């Protein structure tokens, strides 16, 4: 993957196609941009440039300011947009990538539309038991426990090469788990995200994700929520064909 050197830092990026329209795809924690390859292939068409940057500390992406992990991921998005000044901008964000996309929206990064698959915004969840469930997983600092809880599949069911990669990335993933779970988003600022936003919800995903997308649908000025039958939290990776129609 090419690496772009920007004022904010180095950004490694997957790219498909070219044209006046731009679709930025932001991956989930523990996933990386390669996880969105199948979805990008389904969305490719003439006139559309698709880019999937690796978020901070994934691959060769390293931001200059890493004091706040979530903010560093937002800087990746900002740097990506500075590289690509298109006529029309769209964004797809998965999980942690969805949170990053929302923060970009409230910080005046211009997009015409967004599709967010279960953006992780714990700050909007009122149910204390659900928040406690998430915080307990984060507190373990156990990648296997995190993946099992959020992916809906036992750790041992993952291919050995995937488990090895995640174990190697453990320090990055644990830091992201903590930062995203505890991110103090000012919910009032969501009213500034005025572009149409589709919130996708996997039918089989953890209950906390249902609480997030339901609440966000009431806080965002122009949002609709759609439940995708049969999918879990990793739906965009495991069943791209079920997610793609919402972006076409």
Defining key terms:
9-stranded mixed beta sheet, alpha/beta, 10 helices, 248 residues, 39% helix, Rossmann fold, 9 strands
H/E element order: EEEHEEHEHEHHHHEHEHH
For the record, the count of structural domains works out to 1
Query: Class, according to the CATH hierarchy?
Result: Alpha Beta
Give the terminus-to-terminus CA distance: 25 Å
The helix count comes to 10
Total E-strand runs: 9
CATH level-3 fold name: Rossmann fold
Unreliable stretches: none
* Helix content percent band: 25-40%
How much of the residues is beta strand, in percent? 15-25%
What can be said about the biggest beta sheet? 9 strands, mixed
User: Which architecture would the CATH scheme give at its second level?
Assistant: 3-Layer(aba) Sandwich
Task: State the secondary-structure class.
Answer: alpha/beta
SSE layout:
Blueprint: E1 3-6, E2 9-16, E3 21-26, H1 37-43, E4 48-53, E5 62-63, H2 69-83, E6 88-94, H3 96-106, E7 113-117, H4 128-140, H5 143-151, H6 160-168, H7 170-181, E8 197-202, H8 207-219, E9 223-228, H9 235-238, H10 240-243
Parallel strand pairs: 3-4, 3-6, 6-7, 7-8, 8-9
Antiparallel strand pairs: 1-2, 2-4, 2-5
Helix pairs in contact: 2-3, 4-7
């Amino acid at each position: 993957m090419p690496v772009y050197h920007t004022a904010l830092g180095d950004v490694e990026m997957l790219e498909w196609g070219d044209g006046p329209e731009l679709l930025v795809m932001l991956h989930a924690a523990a996933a990386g941009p390669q996880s969105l390859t199948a979805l990008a292939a389904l969305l490719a068409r003439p006139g559309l440039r698709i880019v999937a940057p690796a978020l901070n500390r994934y691959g060769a992406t390293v931001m200059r300011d890493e004091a706040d992990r979530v903010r560093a991921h937002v800087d990746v998005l900002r740097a990506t947009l500075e590289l690509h000044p298109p006529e029309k901008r769209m964004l797809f964000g998965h999980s942690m990538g969805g949170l990053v996309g929302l923060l970009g929206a409230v910080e005046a990064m211009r997009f015409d539309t967004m599709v967010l698959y279960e953006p992780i915004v714990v700050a909007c969840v009122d149910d204390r038991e659900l928040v406690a469930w998430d915080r307990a997983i984060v507190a373990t600092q156990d990648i296997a426990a995190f993946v099992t809880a959020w992916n809906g599949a036992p750790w041992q069911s993952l291919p050995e090469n995937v488990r090895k990669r995640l174990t190697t990335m453990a320090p990055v993933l644990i830091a992201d788990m903590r930062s995203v779970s505890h991110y103090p988003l000012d919910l009032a600022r969501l009213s500034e995200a005025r572009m149409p936003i589709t919130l996708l919800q996997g039918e089989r995903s953890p209950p906390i994700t249902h609480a997030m997308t339901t609440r966000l649908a009431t806080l965002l000025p122009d949002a609709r929520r759609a439940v995708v039958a049969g999918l879990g939290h990793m739906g965009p990776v495991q069943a791209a064909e079920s997610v793609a129609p919402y972006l076409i």
